[in-house]
Design a protein that fits this description.
alpha/beta, Rossmann fold, 7-stranded parallel sheet, 6-stranded parallel sheet, 14 helices
Length: 399
């Protein structure tokens, strides 16, 4: 079977969980199918890249659509196309029509559940929602990265036949992420591995809850190092808000607040995660969150919210602590203050009990190795391809 994997992110241009997913999945799929990879952005080895530069100066969504059309025109003959995120969904949908082949989608998020994206895309947000909906409604099969994601799909798009939706959770490479006691990268960023620390890894984005973490951090014990591997702000507005909250925290905590602006190399990320007392995931929207798995694989306790697929990864009081967050109350300032305080309390409890944090870390590592293996995920994905091809042939016979 020849499959074209369509994605915005592909190494070395990776900035989020979807990119990590595609990278790991592709490496294992290549052993099972004849794999073609089409991506957006700059030329790179291992994939055919399509620049987001047409129409020049247009809304980012329109430039993505331009690259999607280039993908459809340049894609070789395949038996099936598999797209990831709205950036690639339109290309997958059009290629499916153009080549008369099945289209499989992996759902990493849903645009209607990310209304803050309008601040980033303006009218392009309506285009991204349209592209996603059109692709989803016509897909032969849809893979959800968590059961929570599958539930969201049926809620947001109730006309989709639930029978075409499969849940295949994200994974983690346990040979790339493991307890690493090396300290060379922590030393370069000023992290004292002999003192307690909390680490955050992720984009500067509203959905990641970083502003809530900065406010919660004002209640951490004196001497706690707060390490922020935070980059790629979604908008100038969120960047400015982050800077404001960061400066407040730095005024109170001084050099104990460490901000790493550039994406850390994998070795450095592994070392920082391994040396952390606690990993923090304050997200307010998260279909699964691969970085929690990466922290757990490095044998680090996690404090995370209960949103989306996070509880399917982080087992409360086993591999970490879950803090309730209700998106319906996001507009209530008093509720948000209460949430930030509760998040701080969960972190402080583990900072005060290194032995418990260690037990959570051991359990998290074992859970990653047992339940989140990429080789198994690739095999399950190929099984979905087979069902998608059957669905496609059946639907065309009816028509």
């Amino acid at each position: 079977m020849r499959v074209s994997l369509v994605t915005r992110e592909f190494p070395p241009q990776i900035y989020g969980g979807a990119g990590v997913h595609v990278t790991q999945l592709a490496s294992h799929l290549a052993e099972l199918v004849d794999l073609d990879i089409q991506c957006l952005g700059l030329p790179r080895p291992g994939a055919t890249a399509h620049a987001e530069d047409f129409p020049s100066g247009a809304n980012p969504a329109l430039r993505v659509f331009g690259a999607d059309l280039s993908i459809v025109a340049g894609m070789p003959a395949v038996d099936l196309v598999h797209s990831h995120t709205w950036y690639a969904n339109l290309a997958g949908h059009l290629a499916s029509i153009y080549q008369s082949v099945p289209h499989v989608i992996t759902a990493h998020s849903l645009e209607p559940l990310r209304p803050w994206k309008r601040d980033q895309l303006g009218g392009g947000y309506d285009l991204s929602c349209w592209a996603e909906r059109t692709a989803f409604m016509n897909a032969s099969a849809i893979i959800a990265v968590s059961q929570a994601m599958a539930d969201d799909i049926t809620s947001v798009y109730p006309d989709i036949n639930p029978a075409i939706i499969s849940t295949i959770r994200n994974g983690v490479d346990g040979q790339a992420f493991y307890p690493d006691q090396a300290t060379d990268f922590p030393a370069t960023i000023g992290l004292d591995v002999d003192r307690p620390s909390l680490v955050y890894v992720g984009r500067i984005a509203e959905q990641k809850g970083l502003l809530h973490l900065l406010r919660a951090a004002r209640h951490f014990p004196t001497g706690t190092q707060i390490v922020l591997l935070a980059s790629s702000p979604d908008t100038p507005e969120i960047a400015a808000q982050f800077q404001q909250e960061l400066e407040k925290l730095q005024t109170e905590r001084g050099s104990d607040v460490i901000w790493v602006k550039e994406m850390a190399p994998r070795q450095g990320l592994r070392q920082v995660l391994s040396q952390a007392t606690v990993f923090a995931c304050p997200s307010i929207y998260e279909p699964l969150c691969i970085v929690n798995l990466e922290a757990m694989a490095c044998q680090t306790a996690v404090v995370a919210t209960t949103v989306g697929g996070i509880p399917e990864v982080v087992q409360d009081q086993v591999t970490g602590t879950l803090v309730d967050y209700d998106p319906a109350q996001a507009g209530d300032p008093a509720y948000l203050v209460n949430f930030e305080n509760r998040f701080a309390e969960a972190v402080n409890s583990l900072l005060a009990s290194p032995s418990q944090a260690h037990r959570y870390g051991l359990a998290g590592r074992q859970r990653c190795l047992t339940d989140f293996n990429w080789a198994t995920i690739a095999e399950e994905t190929v099984a979905v391809y087979q069902r998608g091809r059957f669905q496609f042939v059946t639907s065309h016979q009816r028509s």
